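so my prof wants the structure for this chain in the tokens format not the other one, which i didnt know existed until like an hour ago. anyway here's the sequence
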Amino acid sequence: MNAALLEWYDVHARKMPWRVPPAERKAGVRPDPYRVWMSEVMLQQTTVAAVKDYFHRFTARWPTVRDLAAAEDADVMGEWAGLGYYARARNLLKCARAVVADHGGQFPADHAALLKLPGIGPYTAAAIASIAFDMRHTVLDGNVERVMARLHDIHTPLPAAKPDLMQRAETLTPRSRPGDYAQAVMDLGATICTPKSPACGLCPWRAPCQARALGTAPDLPRKTPKKSKPTRHGITFIACRADGAWLLETRPETGLLGGMLGWPGTDWVHTTTALPDVTPPAEANWEALSGEVRHTFTHFHLRLEIRVAWLHADAPITRGHFVARDDFRPSDLPTVMRKAFDLARDQF
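here's what i got, hopefully its the right format
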């Protein structure tokens, strides 16, 4: 089975900016662990299409882990803006600095040592160990879960099925070319064994696939129904000073959007009534916009009321700081804050 999959991968491997193609790998070219790690962190909860531009920008600006470790936090958070799940960006910096401080600027070729690095869990450690160092460790992402569930016709819903799917995946992981195998089985799930309408006729594993034989492939993997997401509400204040500077703040390091640049505002709360009166970050003639920002996070929906104001040049503020118009880049804002700016910008 593994031979058939690797033969398929040798011909059909996806071209990725962080990947060493199978022909080059056979010729002795080794993947850069830094680029493998960077890509795996970015790809968590995010699509390949969304990640590629970010990966190019990050590796162009910070070509090595030492470069990233020496970067300013605000610069990294700004480049990450829009990619979501911002704890990943904070852990990216922590991990880069740990690699430099504790491992001489080289990612350790040891699975246990990788697991001790900030932000690296079992999946990411296995991916770096196998892809970057060709060590026999099993990578289990959503694509691999789907392939295993169909290959073995496993109907136990996720996430309860994860231990069984991992055991099946470990059994198949070869000692020869484990890095290429890990990428091959992920590519198989991404391009052939897709969630809807799998192309079973093109699959190198169509013969041993139990779900294909039984006609259950489109129904697998089964998933435990998700609970409906609650809705939270808040108010965001967007103000511009007479000289064109914007009133912004850096959010606390911990919590949602931690360390990111954003507009001052209220806490985001669950409520079925109107939001209470709140104190804005500066005295001004605040105007409530008719529209609202709607955004969805992993665990809840968010609705934000937007209030805008012009501030006098000497207006005192109770929170935040001013950013000169020429220094302000909307692209440095996380998506929800950029949505707020897009809604308010015509007022200024």
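also thought this was worth mentioning. The chain has a mean pLDDT of 93.
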